[in-house]
Design brief:
Layout (H helix, E strand, L loop, with lengths): L1 H30 L7 E5 L10 E8 L6 E7 L6 E5 L5 E8 L10 E7 L2 E10 L49 E9 L2 E9 L14
Antiparallel strand pairs: 1-2, 2-5, 3-4, 3-6, 6-7, 8-9
Length: 210
């Protein structure tokens, strides 16, 4: 009998655990167990109408289904709050009208969406007045995609080279062979090769000193 009593207690505890789990699953299904991350979209997200009223459609998702959602249009003053309800799948969509707004911040008006039951889980976006200009794109090129460019340079004419004509005296005892003449003026220098060979004749009035 003692053994059968222990088994009965174990069975009772197992049945209780099953009941608790079943109840939790039923509650999760009723609350929307597959929760979605908060998101927000505006249509339009900008306007060229510089002053209100502005009619905007807001849509997105929230984490707690079948619960209220609050959308705040924050312009730095008494920000109006618009309230609607999230459906069973976690989605929401509704229209609201901004009747007045203060000066626009540099980044645009902040639009904030959250739920009272989950205030720390929220989504934000910006509404801009006027609409920013569209991005500029370069037109596509037709035909071949290969491009080429021609660069022309002008080479200045070379500086005039100085010319120098001199007479060189080669003494009789100078050894035959190749030599180099050097002319220099300041930082400028020039060289010219020449060859010493035996003379074919003597200049007039030449005499040998002994």
């Amino acid at each position: 009998m003692a053994h059968s009593t222990v088994v009965s207690h174990r069975v009772a505890r197992a049945l209780l655990a099953v009941a608790v789990v079943s109840g939790a699953l039923s509650w999760a299904a009723g609350q929307g167990a597959a929760q979605t991350a908060p998101s927000i979209n505006l249509k339009p997200d900008c306007t060229d109408q510089l002053k209100p009223p502005w009619r905007i459609t807001v849509s997105g998702t929230m984490t707690v289904p079948n619960s209220p959602v609050e959308v705040i249009f924050d312009y730095g003053g008494a920000a109006p709050t618009f309230i609607d309800k999230v459906d069973q799948s976690g989605h929401y969509q509704f229209d609201f009208v901004v009747q007045r707004a203060g000066p626009q911040p540099a980044a645009g008006y902040l639009v904030h969406a959250s739920q009272p039951r989950q205030p720390k889980l929220f989504a934000e976006t910006r509404f801009r007045v006027p609409c920013p200009p569209p991005p500029t794109t370069s037109p596509p090129t037709s035909g071949s995609t290969t491009s080429s460019s021609t660069t022309s340079t002008t080479t200045p004419p070379p500086a005039a080279r100085p010319e120098l004509t001199i007479s060189v005296v080669v003494f009789g005892h100078t050894a035959f062979g190749a030599r180099t003449l050097l002319a220099a003026s300041g930082a400028t220098a020039a060289t010219a090769p020449f060859l010493v060979v035996p003379g074919s004749q003597q200049p007039s009035g030449f005499f040998t000193r002994r």
